[in-house]
Specification:
CATH topology of the largest domain: Glutamine Phosphoribosylpyrophosphate, subunit 1, domain 1
CATH architecture of the largest domain: 4-Layer Sandwich
Shape: globular
CATH superfamily of the largest domain: Aminohydrolase, N-terminal nucleophile (Ntn) domain
Number of domains: 4
Radius of gyration: 24 Å
Helix content: 25-40%
Number of helices: 24
Length: about 600
């Protein structure tokens, strides 16, 4: 796990630029930081810098300096800069050795480098795991930027007038972007209001993009042209799903640093705990977020379950006051991001890292097995897929509830309307907040599959392209890497996912959800886990807003209006705040979303001005 950055340019860059880029990703890789800089002819140069690879390392496998990055092949004409973890590559490495490859480390970084030398970009089919990687092939004058299939690792890029830059974060790329091109995107601000985050390929900045999961970029150093390719289309693959899951878990326990488990009271992480115990890892330490005195506190149930299988458990109490950490947490989320659960996740990661450097988590189970309640709710209106759209009503609304929301949903296609099941502000509220801005989008999500195959599968496909990689996994990556903690997700192993695709629908999608796992974890059924009411990972939001963050509410509208060049109206924002303070508690998450927007834009405007 690491932070990466770099650029392939046409102009000489101030040496401060790569230093600032590396400084922005350093927290992701606290163990070692290195830079390789070249001139226009790719000759090493620390002064006339035109090209660079930058790396901040979190050492998990082979922590020796020999495995540091950027890493080059023996001839020095192929380089890799890599963030992530690739598993189960040893048999492929033996094949490479038989072909004459010589390995100098035990790192997966060197395996990817040797695999690319032997098989070119087709080596991607051999990579099992999570990765955002850059390969600079100076022999062929090619640069490849690659993001993993499921989107566990982020990759940001800038391409303009023949120049290409990249980084793990938006903040890491900003120092390279010319000052006159660091403008906030009006569409991206609207997208944030719609979804609580900015979906790929957009970022907050007009000229900076986010690479979609399962894609790679091909940059030609001779022509300076950039092309994008989708390299993975999941295919149903018959197999023993439980054996594949066990293998997916086992290969993710390989580490040269201490290993732990994020354990909630939910099904997914409990199944991981069961299978780890079956494999002999019952002494592995687990970590649970605890919300003392709250109905959302999962601590006691998680601790009881861990005790049932003999697994040590540590409860991490989430603070009742967050004002002192609010700005840092917003900064660590990189750009505006308003999932309330990022706060407890950030605290959980901070405390977990003090004992382990690698942690397994249960992300992905809901998206792959249909575990969210919103699927069932939206499927009740699946009859609309066969009807023409109703007239599009878009009347500005402060509250966004009732008839106006219903009319808006009827005016959207059935798949597009799914985004309203998990939205920030409704289209009506966005119109209220932005009276002078006319959005061209009800949703900024990438479209899913055809509802003709299966309405449920179409919804899952939307989530696999949008909600999972850009919301769930972005949060997980940013919160853990902010503390130098590597998070691994066995349930997002692509081989296991392809086994699921081959299962009969009645076995994969059950009521209640995830009964498939009964075979994998008998203690779960005995503890009533499959029939227990599903709970979100929800913090004491009302308390935070009414006490800890209350001092940020006065003049919130004026600040946001100034930061967005009046795209959001000051009076409209303040009216929403008053509506909430006077008793509209259902708007708590929306008020938090506005507070995060205020703080994030302020930070990024300062950073864009400084760099």
């Amino acid at each position: 796990m690491c932070g990466i950055a770099g650029f392939f340019g046409l102009r000489t860059i101030d040496p401060l630029v790569p230093r600032r880029m590396l400084a922005q990703v350093r927290r992701r890789g606290p163990d070692a930081q290195h830079a390789v800089t070249w001139d226009a002819r790719f000759q090493p140069n620390d002064d006339a810098i035109v090209n660079a690879l930058l790396h901040a390392r979190l050492s998990i496998i082979d922590p020796r300096p020999e495995a540091d990055q950027p890493m080059a092949n023996d001839r020095g004409d192929v380089w890799i800069c890599y963030n992530g973890e690739v598993y189960d590559w040893q048999s492929d490495a033996e094949e490479l050795r038989a072909q004459g490859a010589v390995f100098h480390t035990r790192s997966d970084t060197e395996f990817i480098l040797r695999a690319y030398e032997a098989w070119g970009i087709d080596c991607l089919s051999r990579l099992r795991g999570m990765f955002a990687l850059v390969i600079a092939d100076l022999r062929r004058q090619k640069v490849f930027l690659i993001r993993d299939r499921m989107g566990l690792k982020p990759l940001i890029y800038y391409h303009r007038e023949g120049e290409l830059a990249f980084a793990s974060t938006v903040r890491g790329i900003l120092p390279y972007v010319p000052a006159n091109l660091r403008q906030f995107s009006t569409e991206s601000i609207d997208a944030y209001l719609a979804h609580r985050y900015i979906p790929a390929p957009r970022t907050l900045f007009s000229h900076v993009s986010r690479l979609e999961n399962g894609h790679y970029l091909d940059f030609d150093l001779a022509t300076r042209e950039l092309s994008k390719h989708c390299y993975w289309h999941p295919q149903a693959r018959q197999g023993n799903w439980l054996a594949t899951l066990d293998h997916a878990i086992k290969i993710r326990t390989v580490a040269d640093r201490p290993l732990g488990l994020f354990l909630s009271s939910g099904i997914d992480s409990s199944v991981l705990a069961c299978r780890l115990a079956v494999q002999g890892f019952q002494n592995l330490h687990s970590f649970t977020a605890a919300f003392r005195g709250s109905s959302m506190d999962e601590g006691p149930e998680a601790k009881a379950f861990a005790g049932q299988i003999g697994m040590p458990n540590h409860e991490v109490e989430i603070p009742q006051q967050i004002a002192g950490d609010f700005a840092q947490i917003v900064a660590d989320m990189d750009e505006p991001f308003a999932d309330p659960s990022c706060f407890p996740t950030w605290y959980l990661a901070r405390e977990t890292e003090r004992q382990v450097k690698v942690v397994l988590g249960g992300d992905g189970g809901d998206e792959l097995l249909g575990g969210y309640k919103r699927y069932g709710k939206h499927l009740r209106s699946a009859w609309r897929t066969r009807l023409p759209l109703a007239p599009r009503f878009l009347r500005p609304s402060l509250d966004g509830k009732g008839l106006s929301k219903f009319a808006t949903e009827l005016g959207m296609g059935w798949i597009d309307a799914y985004s309203l099941r998990f939205s920030g502000f409704t289209p009506n509220q966005r119109a209220y907040l932005q009276p002078g801005y006319r959005s061209q989008h009800f949703t900024y999500w990438r479209p899913g599959g055809s509802v003709q195959t299966s309405p449920l599968l179409a919804l899952l496909d939307v989530d696999l392209q949008n909600y999972l990689p850009e919301y769930v996994l972005r949060k997980a990556d940013l919160c853990t890497m902010a503390h130098g903690l590597e998070l691994r997700a066995p349930l997002l192993d692509h081989e296991w996912y392809q086994n699921l695709l081959a299962l009969p629908a009645a076995q994969r999608f059950t009521s209640p959800a995830k009964l498939l796992f009964r075979e994998a974890c008998p203690p779960c059924e005995a503890s009533g886990l499959f029939t227990r009411k599903k709970r979100g990972f929800n913090p004491p939001l009302q308390q935070w807003l009414q006490q800890d963050l209350a001092e940020r509410l006065p003049n919130l509208g004026g600040r946001i209006a100034a930061l967005t060049a009046q795209q959001l109206d000051a009076g409209a924002v303040d009216a929403m705040v008053r509506h909430y303070v006077r008793g509209a508690q259902h708007m708590a998450e929306q008020i938090l979303q506005l507070l995060i927007l205020d703080e994030s834009l302020r930070q990024l405007k300062v950073l864009a001005g400084e760099t």
